[in-house]
Protein 1
Amino acid sequence: MGSLGASATVVPRARCALACRLLLSLRMKQLCGSGTILRTGVLAMLVATVACQDNRAEAEAFRSRMTPPAPKAAPDVTSIPSDEALHATLTAPPNVPPPTQRTKPARVVVKLTVKEIEREMSDGVRYVYWTFGGTVPGSFIRVRQGDMVEFHLQNDASSTMPHNIDLHAVTGPGGGAEASFTAPGHASKFSFRALNAGLFVYHCATAPVPLHVANGMYGMILVEPPEGLPPVDREYYVMEGDFYTKGKYHAKGLQAFDMQKGIEARPTYVVFNGAEGSLLGDKALKAYVGDSVRIYFGAGGPNLTSSFHVIGEIFDRVYTEGGSNYQENVQTTMVPAGGSAIVDFKVQVPGSYPLVDHSLFRAFNQGAVGILKVEGPPNKLVFSGKEEDSLAVQEATKPEDSLKDAAFSNLTLEERIAAGKPLFMSTCASCHQAAGTGIGSTIPPLAASDFLVRNDKDRVIEVVLNGLSGPIKVNGTAFNSSMPAWNSLSNDDVANILSYVMNSWGNNKGLVSAADVARVRQGAL
Amino acid sequence: MISLTRVFRVLAAVSLVAAGASAAPSATAPPPGMKSVGPGVYRPLYAASPAEREVPVRAFYLDVKPVTNADYLSFVQAHPKWRRDRVTGLFVDEGYLSHWQAAESLGPEVRPASPVTHVSWFSAKAYCAARAARLPTEREWELAALASETSPDGSRNPEWVARILAFYATPANRPLADVGKTKPNFWGIEDLHGLAWEWIHDYGASLVASDSREKGEGQNLRFCGASGADAQDPADYASFMRVAFRSSLEASYTTARLGFRCAKDVRSAP
């Protein structure tokens, strides 16, 4: 690495040539041609890290030192497969089409329709998504190395925008972007040879590209190696994406894209599969004890990389960056924006396993949580049920906003229960679970909870507003976890959530009013 | 109904001519339904050369409102060769006027006062020619669209810029509103933003470099992430979207959100 580090600090003019060709930038060309000093650090880095034609020998030598020789069977591209064309089966996330199980390349027809649709990003929060196939991420495409893919991109007649597709699996200009550029109500066709095996991101590349991606225009295509991937029991498709809305996190109503937040990379939402709760509750991923599970994971961006982690699991294998080699025994894998990883692991203990971006504020405050629910008999030889875990704690925030809503609404118990359920699902269920069962000995149950019987309403309100850390006992089980303070919620929201919790799953504590919450909040100050 | 409106417009124009003659002897009054825009300076998103970063635009007349379904229906009635069942296939694609109930009937779903869409460049050009007018050029349209309600250049006003961007986020599945429901801009022109896309005369020039030898690089560059690299203002997302939209079109294409308005040269007074 030493030699690379040393040379990277210098930006010889000769290195410009290839960088220019890669970027196809007129401005870059002017800079190189005239030898002008590069104006921005970003450009300098780009140029510095791209090996140059003029230093080809040096680069070759470097490569031979760094990379073990890995002979790879290149696909035969001397002729187009002559058999009748196959039609690819596409699936909506989190599902994955079955393995191709083919022994030779084929012609494969892929038909994908771009649709602009309005849909929920979170409870009561709506957004206009631009999609490949009507979902975020777009339809999963599965082909085999060497396949000749005939790609049909249709842009729905109801679309406002023109769109196209850049598949990172394509060898050719723009990844197909120019060849697939399509006006609303029209369709384009192009073909490419799947030369390289791997898990590749595809995305719209119509200007302004970041906006198209920020609105959900990404998905993945798997190019299987000739021998296929090792068989597993279950395969899932998950992509992380960052979203930028005018309103704050959980602000209700139709939300417009916030350009400034996008430029500053300050997302309002960071979510799996396009919306908060896409992988929670009934939509949680499922597996049984003993299953081998594979997740095709990608980061759509437009801005963020993901520190992908499954709480309570270790990835047995990670095909890092979606490539051919795997690393073993990985806790968290880093997935670049516009990149991917294939993670394999075996589930051995029943329970709920949260999928998170381990940049934890994203998980706690922006929505990046999903659940893999594993059912089956307990396995005390692997997990005793007495282990402890703790979760990242959110710093307390000042409750100024909540104090302002002085006019407390006088909702009935039934109204508060109804309003509290969706709030509970979006705010509390990722830990306490949709049915209030908690998680093992990590997260205490709320269902038929003796904690709620032993303590009065004010104490429970206090727990929500101030959080709760340290040892407690609930229904005979000892817990030693940390619950963050939720004083950023309004009095009404806390009243609704608690009215729901205290009158569900066998609890029967009656109405919690906004005035109750306000009183406790004042007392706590 | 339409002809009555036209008569009224003509009468109004006559009185404008009379009123304007003494106030501004150097220019004739705008034709009916049009207002004078410019002169001004247009800053293209992609300048073909450094000398073209700022392009002077001469004053011209522009329709105050986009052409409506009702306007276009009377055009089709007067020029039956532009009926959807008689039009030459070279000039329109299959979507031409497909939202109408019949060749000469809007039907209950289509609002007479909303902008006509599902029209091709050829058909829009023919409509304007029938009015002794033409489609605005890109630089003319962009100059007119640069104006906020209070200034000929709204681009320095973040609130105005954000409002324009919001239009592009509105779902396409909602019916188009009627024309004339937004505030006129500085020039008195309405609905340039927030309602529908509009054809321009030179839509095909948007992505093609002036030097054909640059074409390959110029085009590639404007698709991927590099598209921001040589744009004058990489944060001008609304312009990016218009350029992208225009460059996706062929002259026979029609789409559900694409309409037009007409323009005319300003001739100096005799």
Protein 2
Amino acid sequence: MNIEDVGPHLEHNSKRLEGVTDIEWKIALKKAENHLNYRLWNRTKYGAHTVENLGIPAKEYYLNFAYMSILYGTWQWKDEYDLTQQMIRIIDSRISTVVESYKRTIKKNEERKKEGKLPYTISLESKDVETIFYNLENDISLDETQIKEIENQYALLEQFVSASEDDDIIVFWECTKAGLTRAEISEYIGKKPKQIDKIKEKFLRQIQKEIKPSGK
Amino acid sequence: MENKTAIKTLNNLYGLLIEMNYHKEPVDFISDIQKEDPFISKHLQNVLLHRTKTKAIIKERKYIALKEQFNKLKELGLEKLQELFPPKEKVKMARLFRKFEELSEEDIKDINDDQDFLIFISSLKDKLKDSDDPN
């Protein structure tokens, strides 16, 4: 899709954008950037979200795609969402589309290899880390470097939590391991979701040196 | 097995961070956005640039649509258009009808911001549609 093309929601979106200040734009961009940092964790070195596949760094690509889609009206800015929510929805949808299309190309390339033909894109190797993270139950082997990277990060976190004497940090990590959502943690600990967010901020602040989100 | 635990836990962690970021109130971002951030500044500049471009596109599209409407109405002729209105209304609209008659295609750009005249053109279009509609 050519992003410069004007979409059917141009006028509608433009009317809503009239009320958006620069500060609101900055907040929306920052929130969408955070979303991408977490969403693209460990996913930009191999597979669908590499520069080889997208042409530019993944974070630039998806952020740009989201706001251009709203500005040029190729996506409707729905009344029930604020600017950030709409941007995040566009980003997530685009990520799924890119992953699906990447998987299709990989499959086609494998078929072409079997037929003795050259693959469509030489850079598309079958190192699809995506498959693992989009479907954890999938039993697909990662290469050694990737496994080592994940294990190192995990070990650092375990080490950090074991050394911590802060109950909030310890419980937060246990809840994360158990796969609890924000609301579930809130119920389990007996604190409001906003207080859980504060614990998360504390957790992140303290492990900042150990965890550096990818996608930058 | 250990690999699976590591992958699953880190995936849980990032899933949780995504959820918490989604629920974070705009006011809690104020201190973040006050810091110097070349990435955000670059994208904000891009947003503002394309906002200006899209505004220009909208204006241009409005102009093209208006020109089309105007040409269609001109083809019908002033007399026929005046017949669509009851005499009292016709008198009230004399000024706008005069303007319509004197207006050429080149002048349309200037009337793009003339709200009274735009409403008048739109009412001519509606009247015409009503008179064509047998119901």
